[in-house]
Amino acid sequence: MTQKQKRRQTSPIRLLSVLSIATLFSCTSTRTTDASLPAWRQLFNGKDLNDWTVKITGHRAGDNFGNTFRVNEGNLTVGYEQYDEFKERFGHIFYKHKYSAYLLGIEYRFVGEQIKGGPEWAIRNSGAMIHSQSPETMGQNQDFPISLEVQLLGGNGTDERTTANLCTPGTNVVMNKRLITDHCISSSSKTYAGNQWVRVEVLVLGDSLIKHIVEGDTVLTYEKPQIGGGSVTNYNPAAKRDLELLKEGYISLQSESHPVEFRKVELFDLSRYTWNKQQLRKVLTQLRNRPKIAYADIEQE
Q1: C-alpha neighbours within 13 Å on the C-beta side of residue 204
Q2: Integer distance in angstroms from the first to the last C-alpha of the chain?
């Protein structure tokens, strides 16, 4: 085995301990960033969905049933105007490339009313799936991709509802050195009510460390994402290799019966830095030290 092959089998995060990176990226600062920091990659261009593939339960990959996902006024919009009722047609729209180490940024808001037949738990509920299987490997009647879901929730006017929670269709994670098999784990975020825009970021470092960040504050941290558990149906057994660590995967956005809009989906690729601990530490420091912006600029309609 060559040194290059050995290097590929080593998780990049081993160059920096999980503790050191967790501490490094645990807070924000108002200092400016280094001008040499590369630009973010815009996964959604605000014009079309040419780089995305839709997969809706009961339909083949690429069939955007009911025009569920579309671009409207520059936003990636999820709507159900052409549905009679929901009928458990859970949907996802997948970006064309898979990634391993990155910082993902999403700005979203909930609008309108839930479609008839949507489950009660899905009111003002959507999500971003990370480390996901591809849409082409999903069964036609599969409800959710085997993945990690960064669950996005809006306030319902009555209850406290944290956002950037974790749900685990066909997966498990480790938290505080303990395997977590619960399907959903709440974050420490506040509730975001109404139709305000909210920015969520996700720091993903291969099969080691993942952090959920809301408006600049870390609200959930876990390690060792792996295939296992339930809460996903009608999947191809060949795609569910329990105990296998998830080092990479696709990114997708959900349709779960409540209309939602995404105005930004962007990614800072960290893969070029993962084999040099000094460079990785430097770029994470730069990202941490970005000016803290009030992303939730409330826009009532």
Answers
A1: 32
A2: 61
| Structural domains of the chain sorted by starting position, each given as residue range(s) with its CATH number in brackets | 14-288 (2.60.120.560)
Token digits of residue 150: 């960064």
Q: How far apart are CA 251 and CA 78, in angstroms?
A: 16
Compute how many other C-beta atoms are within 10 angstroms of the C-beta atom of residue 235. 20
Mean pLDDT by 10-residue block, N- to C-terminus, for the chain (301 residues)?
40 49 51 61 97 98 98 98 97 98 98 97 97 98 98 93 98 96 96 95 96 96 95 94 96 98 97 90 87 43 27
The helix (H) or strand (E) run that includes residue 270 is none
Q: Whole-prediction pTM value? A: 0.88
Q: Specify the DSSP class assigned to residue 1.
A: -
Are 191 and 155 in contact by the 8 Å Cβ rule? The answer is yes
Q: Give the Cβ contact number of residue 215 at 10 Å.
A: 20
Token code pair at residue 229: 């558990």
SS in 3 state form for 178-246?
EEECCCEECCCCCECCCCCCEEEEEEEECCCEEEEEECCEEEEEEEEEEECCCCCCCCCHHHCCCCCEC
Query: Strands 178-180 and 184-185: what pairing?
Result: unpaired
The answer to whether residues 110 and 300 touch, using CB atoms and an 8 Å cutoff, is no
Are the beta carbons of 266 and 290 closer than 8 angstroms? Answer: no
CA–CA dist 8, 248 (Å, integer): 13
Residue at 111: amino acid letter = V
Identify the CA nearest to 109 among candidates 264, 231, 1. Answer: 264
List the one residue out of 224, 165, 223 whose CA is nearest residue 190: 165
